[in-house]
Amino acid sequence: MGAIEKIRENQRAKGPATILAIGMANPTNCVYQVKYPDYYFCMTKSEHMTALKQKFIRICDKSMIHKRYMHLTEELMEKHPEICPYDTPSLNPRQHIIVDTIPKLGE
């Protein structure tokens, strides 16, 4: 009997991902896929990268997604400017944002 409980314990997720099992919650910020490339490049101040923007527009057109729900807002980008520039290491700040916002989805 103890072996079965140990197997179940090992199969359970630990960390922020466990909260996602509570239910389906969407962030309040909704961006339509058609407007997303302009929104993203304007927010990250990367409008000068026209070739990359055209490629991103093609990807968004082909993706069959109509809406994007996200926590990435202009206020969040102003609070964390290190995630805006192209080619900068931003994994750690993004992980800190995730740790703060995932519990709010369960509310």
Automatic annotation (TrEMBL):
Residues 5-106 form the Chalcone/stilbene synthase N-terminal domain. SUPFAM superfamilies: Thiolase-like. It comes from the Eukaryota. One of its GO terms (molecular function) is acyltransferase activity, transferring groups other than amino-acyl groups. Pfam families: Chal_sti_synt_N. InterPro entries: Chalcone/stilbene_synt_N, Polyketide_synthase_type-III, Thiolase-like. PANTHER family: CHALCONE SYNTHASE 1, HYDROXYMETHYLGLUTARYL-COA SYNTHASE. This is Chalcone/stilbene synthase N-terminal domain-containing protein. It comes from Eucalyptus globulus (Tasmanian blue gum).
